[in-house]
Specification:
- The structure is a homodimer.
- With about 375 residues, chain A is of the alpha/beta class.
- Chain A contains 14 helices and eleven strands.
- In chain A, helix 4 crosses helix 14 and helix 7 packs across helix 11.
- Chain A is globular and about 55 Å long.
- At the A-B interface, helix 2, helix 3, strand 3, helix 4 and strand 8 of A face helix 2, helix 3, strand 3, helix 4 and strand 8 of B.
- Strand 3 of chain A pairs antiparallel with strand 3 of chain B, so a sheet runs across the interface.
Chain lengths: ~375, ~375
Amino acid sequence: MRTVCVVGAGMSTWGEVWRKSFRQLFVDAALEAIEKSGVDHLESLYIGCMSGGLFVHQEHLGSLMADYLGMAGIPATRVESACASGGLAVRSAYIEVASGMSDIVMASGVEKMTDCHGDDASAALATAADQEYEVFHGATFPGLYAMMAHAHMAKYGTTRQMLTAISVKNHFNGSMNPVAQYPFKVKPETVESSVMIADPLRILDCSPITDGAAAVILTTEEIAKKLGKPYIKIIGSGAATDTIQLAQRADMTTIKAATLAADRALRMAGKTLKDVNFAEVHDCFTIAELVILESIGLYAPGKAGAAILAGETALDGKFPINTSGGLKSKGHPVGATGVAQVVEVYKQLTGQAEGGRQLKSRPKIGMTQNMGGSGGSSVVHIMEVA
Amino acid sequence: MRTVCVVGAGMSTWGEVWRKSFRQLFVDAALEAIEKSGVDHLESLYIGCMSGGLFVHQEHLGSLMADYLGMAGIPATRVESACASGGLAVRSAYIEVASGMSDIVMASGVEKMTDCHGDDASAALATAADQEYEVFHGATFPGLYAMMAHAHMAKYGTTRQMLTAISVKNHFNGSMNPVAQYPFKVKPETVESSVMIADPLRILDCSPITDGAAAVILTTEEIAKKLGKPYIKIIGSGAATDTIQLAQRADMTTIKAATLAADRALRMAGKTLKDVNFAEVHDCFTIAELVILESIGLYAPGKAGAAILAGETALDGKFPINTSGGLKSKGHPVGATGVAQVVEVYKQLTGQAEGGRQLKSRPKIGMTQNMGGSGGSSVVHIMEVA
């Protein structure tokens, strides 16, 4: 397999974007990625999107997006794994370049969630859970993650303050990210007095409903060098599934798909977590970030909360998590999130993170962890400075 | 890139399948493919599906299907390109095996269309067209293909009898296919007196709404040999897009995405159409089959109709088309169709086609052509006996 590099990244506006269409969000991100990378053509396109059908009543996204990018003709593939769709788009593009099938491939993600067709956005999102055995009985994602939070609290004594610290940290980081949907700091007391969604999760424990897109260009090292733009290498890619139903798992306090995906990506990279300097992880809810840090092995079970309270995962901590602001502050257009995580790692490793959030520690290796449903799927990438 | 083989294929029941769920259809096809291939595990899974969201209100298909197959843990990716989703699932699995990332990968497709959630199936299918510029103004696929038929008739003198001959031929072939949804012959006068859907297309010009799944196992040649089961080689894979809107194309009587995809697949295989013995093509409407045969270069523009009337594409003709019965007779569960085309080529090339439809000519090379929307995307594979 050939070495694959990321050269160039783009993001649309993220937020409640009433004045731009689904296709325009994609084109905005794609054009920025093309411009920043310096490539003059694409050989293939991947688009991560959870539900064009339910959100905007539009499928056939490969044709639509290649067309509106002015590139009708190229192969284009939409991939879906609920909120891990973007991570899989990056992985699919990675495999295509690594295989030798194509030399210059765009991995992108897009979702337009705020003008949801038909049902409301929560009902559309619930299709990432088991329709027959979870959703039919009333489960939604805030409810499922609330159950994980209660289980973790019962087993390990995890506290409200630990969850609060995650929200406060991610909003602090996101306050420096110009594309973040909610680029402002929040105080602990604001988090803890915000409206209850599904006990113990409050609104400031939950990532928002977002319109947005992200894109990166993947290519060979030879071409990346020639382009003369900053680039990084993808050195590991891991993906995994687990039971779609939360109730069928042996332990609700860990996410096995994240464990498997991280192990596979690290093994492929020939690295351990000790070699990794920072990570973007899937904080769809504050409890998710905490559970993921334990699931990928950064902390032992039950130990992440105290470390977070001690500031270990802060921007100036020993292992910064979600320097972009994470899903919580930056926003969570579900199909785009996994690609945006790679955008952040690309920016951090090439010294391009804006607004004062650039890591001072000159990181060499970063990780992304993207997740679908209540942990039914996960995708992890390890990237290294070139 | 490594040589990739198809070893083992499976199909669920196709039709209006009220007693089996979405997931069960997939599992039926997948288990048959696993059993026939003799593999004892999968390393990755691809699922072609157009709209789990709109048809059955279920996304996150990688997690769901890997889980219900008893294989939670493996990477699983759902790919979508409207009715070409299945072809792209095969292509994605092909790239993954060719790259060296995985050795044993399942490519599958599934759609459950007859118990459509919310809108009717036609509205769900219309999301493969441009929602803002086609569907909003009332266009549906029978209407779009009817326009192509009128344009072809006006330009080349294509007749009702030519379209009729396609329906009659495909139903004849399908009458010998045990999994076909409509496994019966039809008379020309029945086609021509059937109810009008969108002039000039009648109901017997249209492929049906179908529940069904299909699956194939892709692996390396080394493993295929060891398994000791019949296998074939994939020697070419081509994919392409075109404008999603029919109205934006220079010529409505040809499908450029099919031309591009076929050219790319043949070039990769180092073959020309003269080397190919038979093909499964995307006859979502009778006119589609006619236009595709011209678009891929089997006949000059305007010449396919007369050749079809002369029996050249019949089971005993010089270039048999849709020996399976095609979408018209076999059925068209949109995400599964592209995989089922590969199932038919696998069966024909390994001498396993049932019911008397096995080609007597001992074919050596077969082609599949799968298509999304009104030709906004197309995927072509070339396969050869091992």
